[in-house]
Amino acid sequence: MGKATFDLIASFYPLLEQTVFGSTLSRARRIFIPRVTEGSKILLIGEGNGRFLFEMVKYASSASVTVVDSSARMLAAAARRIATIDRSRIELIHADILEWRSFASSYDRIVTHFFLDLFPPQRIRRIVEKISRFATKDALWINVDFTSENQGLRQKSLMWAQYRFFRISAGIEASRLFDPHPFISIAGWESWKRDH
């Protein structure tokens, strides 16, 4: 399997997400905006089409923001979404997070929304290690993702269909949802808030 890319579905992904999940994922992305915007150097990984970025930069008046995404089309959509915003403090980078070499100083806010669920355990471990190298000593990492805990039959069926669809359309590596928290804990991160 080649590298995952959301290029093929970038144009209709927002509609797809809204159809399947309603506003649930959008609300989940926005809930921690106040904590993210307390940072001065913010790293968004796998941001997609820029919906969170657009909302966040309205509140992060002086922070510098770096966005890393492996989908060129998603980044182009993000660029269009923030076209009316001052771009001088926003950097959009087309790269796989594991291959990206950052020459910037460390980040005090790191955000991953519905990102780690795309990978199998060994890739999750490597991504968590990479994220940890980008972080300042007192960094806050906001990781919003799906969970397999307390799922009913409908949720399990939906997750099964979701993974089949994204493996075919985007080439994601994971065949099911894996829990990233053991790797996050091993890397030394302390959970601040965890909801199911």
- Overall spatial form: globular
Number of helical runs? 8
Task: Give the termini distance in whole angstroms.
Answer: 31 Å
Structural class based on helices, strands and sheet pairing: alpha/beta
Strand content: 15-25%
CATH topology (level 3) name: Rossmann fold
Task: Tell me the strand order in the biggest sheet.
Answer: 3-2-1-4-5
Total number of beta strands = 5
Rg value:
16 Å
CATH architecture: 3-Layer(aba) Sandwich
List SSEs in N-to-C order: HHHEHEHEEHEHH
Task: Write out the CATH superfamily name.
Answer: Vaccinia Virus protein VP39
- Average predicted confidence as pLDDT: 89
Please write the CATH class name.
Alpha Beta
Characterise the protein shown here:
The protein has 196 residues and is α/β, with parallel strands linked by helices. It has one domain (7-184): Rossmann fold. It is 38% helix and 17% strand. It has helices at residues 13-21, 24-30, 33-36, 51-57, 72-81, 121-134, 153-169, 181-186, and strands at 41-45, 64-69, 90-94, 107-113, 135-144. A five-stranded parallel sheet has the order 3-2-1-4-5. It is globular and about 45 Å long. It starts with 12 loop residues before the first helix and ends in a 10-residue tail after the last helix.
Give the helix/strand layout.
Elements: H1 13-21, H2 24-30, H3 33-36, E1 41-45, H4 51-57, E2 64-69, H5 72-81, E3 90-94, E4 107-113, H6 121-134, E5 135-144, H7 153-169, H8 181-186
Parallel strand pairs: 1-2, 1-4, 2-3, 4-5
Descriptive terms for the model:
196 residues; 5 strands; 8 helices; single chain; five-stranded parallel β-sheet; globular; Rossmann fold; alpha/beta
